[in-house]
């Protein structure tokens, strides 16, 4: 997971004609066009309109090589000719033809987060199609959503590749926004780089992040004893901020 967040506030217009505080940029559509048709103009658009997203996908997610390697485009295209990945691309196109609900939930959740943490920076958010690797990528002032990891808990590809019922529970559309916020907060409030940090401290820190996510999404997405402990800490420290909670470990 890349950890670099910048700050730029703006309203963004999307395909649904709405202006949102946070909206998902559809890098995945251009990527899909190139990977299913080999359309060179789509590849050009990837490199000109989405240079950082393309670099992150090729170099950091898929680890296919350097984006300026003369053979990288052919390698990238060939990689996705796998029949399973082609089926994933088509299924992603079908399920995510419209992401209005995700834009709305992201915007509402970040608005609530900003009320509690006024100095918060709002990153760009974009969608991509990975290869069943990382769900959320955070870095370079961006949050990348790998839509291939959110195709539904009963998706046959997940069953084929042996994902457990516990893993598949979170591999559905309703987890996109909570995961985005959770990984974003983790990038801003990482555990200290200390080998002496215990597993209990790690769990408590994650529990604090998950408690904040539950609050700003107004859903009980994450449930655990450590989330309950975070709620107890906030109750026992009236007037404390989200930031104070997230800095306790």
Could you characterize the architecture of this molecule?
α9 crosses α10 (199-217). Strands 3-4-6-5 form a four-stranded mixed β-sheet, sandwiched between helices. Strands 1-2 form a two-stranded antiparallel ribbon. It contains twelve helices and six strands. With 249 residues, the chain is of the alpha/beta class. The chain folds into two domains: 12-187, no CATH class; 192-246, no CATH class.
Whole-Å distance between the termini? Answer: 20 Å
Helix content: 40-55%
H/E element sequence: EEEHHHHHHEEEHHHHHH
Task: Record the strand order, biggest sheet.
Answer: 3-4-6-5
Q: Please provide the count of β strands.
A: 6
Which residues sit in consecutive blocks of at least 5 with pLDDT less than 50?
A: 1-13
The structural class is alpha/beta
The geometry reads as globular
Largest sheet: 4 strands, mixed
Mean pLDDT: 91
Helix run count? 12
Estimated share of beta-strand residues: 5-15%
Rg, please?
Answer: 19 Å
Q: What's the structural domain tally?
A: 2
Helices and strands, with pairings:
Blueprint lengths: L11 E2 L5 E2 L3 E2 L1 H11 L2 H10 L1 H11 L10 H8 L3 H13 L4 H17 L7 E5 L7 E4 L2 E5 L9 H5 L4 H5 L6 H13 L10 H19 L7 H12 L5 H5 L3
Parallel strand pairs: 3-4, 4-6
Antiparallel strand pairs: 1-2, 5-6
Helix pairs in contact: 1-2, 1-5, 2-3, 6-9, 6-10, 9-10, 10-11
List keywords for this structure.
disordered N terminus, alpha/beta, 2 domains, 12 helices, 249 residues
């Amino acid at each position: 997971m890349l950890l670099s967040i910048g700050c730029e506030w703006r309203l963004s217009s999307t395909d649904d004609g709405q202006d949102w505080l946070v909206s998902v940029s559809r890098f995945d559509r251009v990527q899909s066009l190139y990977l299913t048709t080999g359309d060179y103009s789509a590849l050009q658009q990837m490199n000109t309109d989405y240079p950082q997203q393309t670099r992150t996908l090729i170099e950091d997610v898929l680890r296919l090589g350097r984006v300026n390697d003369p053979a990288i485009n052919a390698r990238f295209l060939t990689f996705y000719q796998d029949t399973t990945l082609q089926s994933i691309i088509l299924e992603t196109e079908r399920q995510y033809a419209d992401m209005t609900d995700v834009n709305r939930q992201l915007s509402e959740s970040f608005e609530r987060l900003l009320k509690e943490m006024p100095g918060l920076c709002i990153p760009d958010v974009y969608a991509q199609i990975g290869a069943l690797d990382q769900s959320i990528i955070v870095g370079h002032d961006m949050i990348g959503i790998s839509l291939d990891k959110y195709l539904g808990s009963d998706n046959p590809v997940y069953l084929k590749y042996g994902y457990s019922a516990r893993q598949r529970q979170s591999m559905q559309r309703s987890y996109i926004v909570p995961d985005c916020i959770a990984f974003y907060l983790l990038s801003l409030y990482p555990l200290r780089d200390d080998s002496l940090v215990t597993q209990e401290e790690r769990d408590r820190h994650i529990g604090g992040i998950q408690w904040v996510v539950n609050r700003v999404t107004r859903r009980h997405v994450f449930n655990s004893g450590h989330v309950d402990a975070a709620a107890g800490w906030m109750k026992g420290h009236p007037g404390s901020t989200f930031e104070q909670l997230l800095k306790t470990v």
